[in-house]
Write a structure and sequence with these properties.
Layout (H helix, E strand, L loop, with lengths): L2 H13 L13 H13 L3 E12 L2 E13 L3 E8 L9 E7 L2 E5 L13 E5 L1 E2 L2 E2 L2 H8 L9 H7 L2 H10 L4 E8 L2 E10 L9 E7 L5 E13 L6 E16 L13
Antiparallel strand pairs: 1-2, 1-13, 2-3, 3-4, 4-5, 5-6, 7-8, 9-10, 10-11, 11-12, 12-13
Length: 261
């Protein structure tokens, strides 16, 4: 049994076979999510944009925009930019792979001002095996600004990344359908943990369109903090949302796969 099949079984155990009354070819939240994962897993090419918005009570929102394209097995381009490079330095990150080599930015270190200009270049073929796009993403992840983007993990379909993501879903059910940017979406929701080994600290929602594509992934957490003026304990809400506009099995731009060194 392959890693994808094992993950599908693992996801199914979350919802316990909970039956959904909505249409769309899946009778439960776990079946719906399995169809989504399978769609990305089988895709030859994926391209588009993902915008991550981080917001908290009393704090100006921060966004990180991701543009990417992949062609399996090993061609890749990712570019990320931050809306505020002072809050999220250095403000721009790039990962590239031409199928022979891949490159990525060194993890940001404020004590090295020239650090963002330094890149790491590695071979795609290691001990006779070709690294897949998901393996390249895992290797380059430390050099990205948005390192925890769940939609990238779903799109790239690396078993370890999907296993970790599944571990953050502490429960799963299908909520009411919702409109998102004019699209009627089915919504999978449940309790969320920041780490699979931890107890849930918030909730998640996954918005899925009629093509079994993730168009939004949302995490909301609440935590206590001390009000600096009143010295009283207050509750702060923190939200991470990723909005995606992706094309599956569409054309890609060959020049973007050029390795940046």
């Amino acid at each position: 049994m392959n890693a994808f099949a094992l993950l599908a079984i693992s996801v199914a155990s979350l919802s316990g076979g909970q039956q959904s009354q909505t249409s769309g070819g899946a009778n439960s939240a776990s079946e719906l999510l399995t169809l989504v994962l399978e769609r990305y897993y089988n895709a030859r090419t994926i391209s588009g944009t993902i915008v991550n918005t981080q917001s908290a009570d009393g704090v100006r929102p921060l966004t990180i925009s991701t543009s990417f394209q992949l062609r399996r097995p090993a061609h890749l381009f990712i570019q990320q930019s931050s809306s505020d490079s002072r809050r999220m330095p250095p403000g721009k990150w790039v990962v590239t792979s031409d199928g022979d080599e891949f490159s990525y930015s060194r993890p940001y270190n404020p004590s090295e001002p020239d650090n963002p200009l330094l890149r790491i270049v590695e071979k795609v073929i290691v001990r006779g095996e070709i690294l897949q796009v998901g393996e390249i993403l895992l290797a380059a992840r430390s050099g990205l600004g948005d390192r925890q983007c769940p939609i990238l993990d779903i799109a790239f379909s690396h078993p370890d990344a999907l296993k970790y993501l599944r571990g953050t879903w502490k429960s799963m059910t299908e909520g009411p359908e919702q409109l998102f940017k004019g699209q009627k979406c089915r919504v999978i929701e449940g309790q969320h943990a920041t780490n699979p080994a931890l107890l849930p600290t918030g909730t998640y929602k996954i918005f899925i369109n009629s093509n079994f594509e993730v168009v939004r992934y949302e995490i909301t957490e609440k935590f206590g903090a001390l009000d600096p003026e009143t010295k009283r304990q207050m509750e702060i809400s923190y939200t991470l949302a990723w909005d995606a506009n992706l094309t599956i099995n569409g054309p890609v731009q060959e020049k973007l796969f050029t390795v940046v060194k």
